[in-house]
Amino acid sequence: MDSRGGFAGEVALVTGAASGIGRELSYELARRGAVVIMADIAAEVRKAARACDAPAQACIPASLDVADASAVEELVQSVVEEHGRLDYMFNNAGIASCGEVRDLGREDWESVLDVDLWGVIHGTTSAYRIMVDQGFGHIVNTASLGGIVPEPFAAPYSASKFAVVGLTLALRVEARDLGVKASVFCPSFVKTNVLENARYVGVSREQALREMGALRSCPPERAVRRLLSGVMRNRAVITDGIATSVLWRLYRTSPRLFEPLLRKGARDLRLIRERCGASIASPASSE
Hints:
Layout: E1 11-15, H1 20-31, E2 35-40, H2 44-50, E3 59-63, H3 69-83, E4 88-91, E5 97-98, H4 106-134, E6 137-142, H5 155-175, E7 180-186, E8 199-200, H6 205-213, H7 220-232, E9 237-239, H8 242-253, H9 255-276
Parallel strand pairs: 1-2, 1-4, 2-3, 4-6, 5-8, 6-7, 7-9
């Protein structure tokens, strides 16, 4: 067993594993002795798996569109058939659409909800049935600070992440007597490609990124260490640090205290929208 605890000889499936949190999570699990199936819709997942510095065959790439329920079910089943068990399901894949609600079209909502909510539902339900039958397992869903504190100008993303938090906490209660654990990870601003690859509607990508770039970001390696520490302790809600935990508790205690800060952020982004004067959209990718 790794001195940092657990995971040796266990089997984990990680979605959104080609980059960001998913990639670093896969690498850290492999270093700790787990067999990791790195799943992603992006072809780069094969290169990411080869780049892992753990022993050969510790990271196994798999092509997967989490919005495809049948594909998720098939992959989960194949993992169990190949390895005989599934100890961890990390539903991490995610994308974002940024813009005011009045500017967003149906496709902006559907693209985010298909991945960030339905993708999590597909992974959760497929893994949960297996874990109930085997009598053990841990489902870990990646939400966001935007799933416990609202994010103006990212309503589809925030809505999906709030839903992921509710789904996970409801499942946690149901699953306890059946031997299955459930946790939700709510990081704040982590240095990943999710913002760079987000769809921007009505605002300039460059100006929006410049505005958000002033926010302090957590390296994915540190976020992953926090995540796995919380998983080992079977925490219900796991954050990427004390600051995020404090923000969450303050917001739960008095949401009105946050209104001035949230409204300022919305006004700053609205100024960018007004300077742009046109909708700008682009494809999105994984967390």
